[in-house]
Amino acid sequence: MKKTIYQIMRERIMYLEYKPGEILNEKVLAEEFEVSRSPIKDVLSRLEWEQLLRVIPRTGSMVSEIEFSRVMNAYQVRFEIECFEATIAEGQFFSKHITKLQELHKKCKSLLQKEDPKALTEIDASLRSLIHDAAGNQVLADVSERLYRQTFRLWYSVLIKSDWIEEVTAVIKELETLLEYFASGSSNEFGIIRKTQLIKHLERLRYKFLGALERPA
Length: 217
Hints:
Elements: H1 5-14, E1 23-24, H2 26-33, H3 37-49, E2 53-56, E3 60-63, H4 68-90, H5 95-110, H6 117-135, H7 138-159, H8 164-184, H9 190-210
Antiparallel strand pairs: 1-3, 2-3
């Protein structure tokens, strides 16, 4: 499926192809995508609503800076939203979801031999999609994805500068924890596990982004 202008621009922002603080020119974008300025304005407005851009009077649309405090606030909400969604999803996490989880685990292990940051983020996105699918609540999924996009650039900026094996291993362990949980026959803990994983993920980011004195466990 061909990506829309919105999807292309959003992806460029998230993967730092448009740098934080960069000014986006409507005329230049209209020429690139071979459209009038009207659809570009609509896309910029949507990205501003998602807090990925902000309007600078008499200047244009600027790619939002990565503000650590704002990202932390978004993570605090993500803890509860993703815990709640996983709790809903657990009762509808069927064999097809387990099979897909196994495939993601296999794919993630293959990345130990090949450094590909985008591929690792796509595995994370696929896991999130599995949970969205099992939960079956589109409103909840939309809220979750909007918060995810507000935190993604911090992770990606850290990911591309970090030890690759360490980053891949962290995701592998998350997937293995989920596979072991569903294989155990336990119940009512999926939400807690996902929240705990997200908290540990944030602790790693905090350590690497701010240079904390103690490495998280």
